[in-house]
Amino acid sequence: MNNPNAIVLECKNITKKFPGVLALDQVDFDCRRGEIHGLLGENGAGKSTLMKIVAGAYEKDEGEILLEGKKVNFKTTKEAIQEKVITVFQEGNVIEDLRVFENIFLNHELRISKTPFLDEKKMIKLSENLIKQYGLNIKSTDKVKNLSVDEKKMVEIFRGLTQGSKVLILDEPTSSLTDLETIKLLNFLNELIKQDICIVFITHNIKEAIAISHRITVLREGKKIKTVDSIATSQEEIIKLMLGRYLTENITYKSNVDKNNIIFEVRELNVKNRLNNINFNLKKGEILGVTGLVGSGGTDLAEAIFGMNNIKKESGKFFLKSKEVDINNPVTAIKNGIGYLTPDRKGDGLFLRFPVYENITMVAIKKFLNKIGFVNKKKQIQISKEYVNLLSVKTPSVSSLVESLSGGNQQKVVLAKWLEILPDIMIMNEPTVGIDVGTKIEIRKIINNITLQGKSIILISTEPDDLIGLCDRIIVMFKGKIIKEINGKTANKEMIINSATKGYEKEIISV
Amino acid sequence: MFKEKTHNAGNSIKNLKNWAIGSLNVIQTMGVFLLIFTFLSIAYPRFFTILNLTNIIKQQVPNLIVAVGITFILISGEIDISIGGTLGLITIVTAKAVLAWGIFPGLILGILTGVFVGFFNGFVVVKGRIPSFIVTLGMMMMTRSIAYVITRGFSIGGLPESFKAFYNFRFLKIPVVFVIVILIYIIAYIALTKTVFGKQIFAVGSNRKAADLSGINSNMVRFRTFIVLGFLVGIAGVILVSRLGGVQAETGRGFEFEVISAVIIGGCSLYGGEGNVLQSIIGVFIIALIRNGLNLSHMDLYWQEFVTGSVIIIAVLLDTWRVRIRERMVLSRG
């Protein structure tokens, strides 16, 4: 309180070993009162590990942590919360069926004094104050499931605030947000920092980090590389610090589209409350981008084409090479040469407890049978090794369990799974979500290479960098409708965001 | 050159560690088995005799056979608690049919009864999208009821001697039923580890949604798994009739929990996607040894169920711990 810029959180020489890996190697880190401190690094650099140690989720092997100059050693997250160190995890930790104020006061509910009864009035009033103070457009009595993703994050942050947090750790808070939602959240953080707290901001997005934080610390392979002042740094410098090298700028992707050869067509596709009269075609060798705000219909479209049973078509016809096809389940979709890479690789893309080679060969398993019909493990391993080399998947061996790989490498395994059967049409939904810059670029190159083999791709993404230059055309969706088509080679970020947010124009808050 | 060598050395230590993590359940179950076995051998002189040991194995034939099917079911992420009732019904159907039409039709009808129950269970679970626990709970009561309707509560005896002799029939001094058990295990082991069906069972149990999205017809896989189990219960049922010589509607009461707990003790995960038939053998014998030990110790009969029950809880606790330990050891970097 006395010194406005005093160091609140200080980590000294933190070392953490996991079996076979030195996750953190004598890392120093500090965060001052009133500061947003960006923490950057590639997947596996140790960002989350460091913050999990601070938050009591992991125990450190060496080093010490000081909170306002006092040595602390949290054994559980509960202890950390008691000392006002609050973490908002990436996955989101709100209870959808409870109302906003109930989520804000979750586990520290206010009671009418000297009784066991909850003081709802007071909780609602305090919640309303917070909502008003930060200019949110929600009510404290709304069910949380009706909020947008950014608003949910803010509710979680409010929970930390009402617990009197000194240190607020945000683990990739923007990874599941669209650009517009990100802007709203960053504005919110800018307001928030005027309070008496410090914020550690873990992110993959370099631009965001530079825009919002006062200082940035870069980790690489478990070591602290450098702490820089955001004003005095550039995107290029951060990338160099993260990767240890400059990225080759401005990659150009080769287009292989055969404009006269329509391979797939969707006509008058309607799904109640989800998709509204969708018509489009896909050409041979084309990458067709589909974008929009989160929940604008890209995923529904993919699931409808792939025949998933949660989508009930009201009407709509699919044409493969001008012949109508009936796709009612993923099995027939795959038989018809359609593959689907889902956005949730851990949830439904991978068998986490299976080794890498079992995952890579799962879709094409029938290609690995020997003469008597048994699965040929040698062949599975041999082919998997080829993919591991081709896509440079970082794994100790093809027999390692997929759950032990980092996110980017897991995504490469999912890609390899589909590359092995190489369907004519590949639907990819957020193929680069939650992975580091270097791997993102590698994956975009792989996507480009697939089309060079004459295959077509529907690329659904809310990240403009996935689409610009890589896609031949980009379809913009809003509330289940196609509202615009853009030339992918000449598109820029502003064009995409502007069209995607057209419906929400009134709500845009400028930075 | 030298560098490469140290790298290899590091790798082999890592491999050893990974192997140890991966084999945690094998080590655990084998250890428990040896511990009980050694204890019984020392404590009860009557335990380590050829007669006692052969008897244990012989008694476990139906459990061993059905344990294979339950292993499949648990790996696929489902459960079947109707096997006890089904076993009862099969023994009744077999006995009645043998008396009416002869041995061979009896065997066929008995096995078909098992297959039919499996078919029904699988169909309702898959098409009705009802949890298998509920469907098979209902089936457990239905099959038991039919068994009572057929027998009106009386036991069935007077089966031909030649049918009863089958159980004790030896080929090259080895009981034929042992050969059947060994064959079933070999086929099941190969089916699980070497065939597409086996891979798909694991995939469906590990992550059903991912399996569907990988083009696996998870409904069909689960359906077929129920039929495999039904078939095996059928075989176990007809063998049981041959051993008992006479049957009643009550046969097989509690059988489901004995087999399911044995398979779980063997290291098959209740959460699906994990398990192996060879470990299930150890599980079956751990339960058998505990029962045998309790008999030898002359413990109060009414307390014996209590002990077996507590063993089941401990086994599931171990399963949960194992998952947690592994999760902690698998590196989570970020």
Question: Describe it for me?
Answer:
The complex is a heterodimer of chains A (511) and B (334). In chain A, 31% of the residues lie in helices and 26% in strands. Chain A is α/β, with parallel strands linked by helices and 511 residues long. Among the domains of chain A are: 1-84 and 167-176 and 195-248, P-loop containing nucleotide triphosphate hydrolases (Rossmann fold, 3-Layer(aba) Sandwich); 91-163, no CATH class; 253-337 and 456-503, 3-Layer(aba) Sandwich (Rossmann fold). In chain A, the strands form four sheets. In chain A, strands 6-7-8-3-9-10 form a six-stranded mixed β-sheet, sandwiched between helices. The two termini of chain A are 29 Å apart. Chain B is 78% helix and 1% strand. Chain B has helices spanning 2-22, 24-43, 50-59, 61-75, 83-101, 103-128, 132-151, 161-168, 176-194, 196-206, 208-213, 218-244, 255-265, 277-296, 301-329; strands at residues 170-171, 174-175. In chain B, helix 2 (24-43) runs parallel beside helix 14 and helix 13 packs across helix 14. The two termini of chain B are 33 Å apart. Residues 1-8 of chain B have low confidence and may be disordered. Chains A and B meet through helix 1, helix 10 and helix 11 of A and helix 1, helix 10 and helix 11 of B.
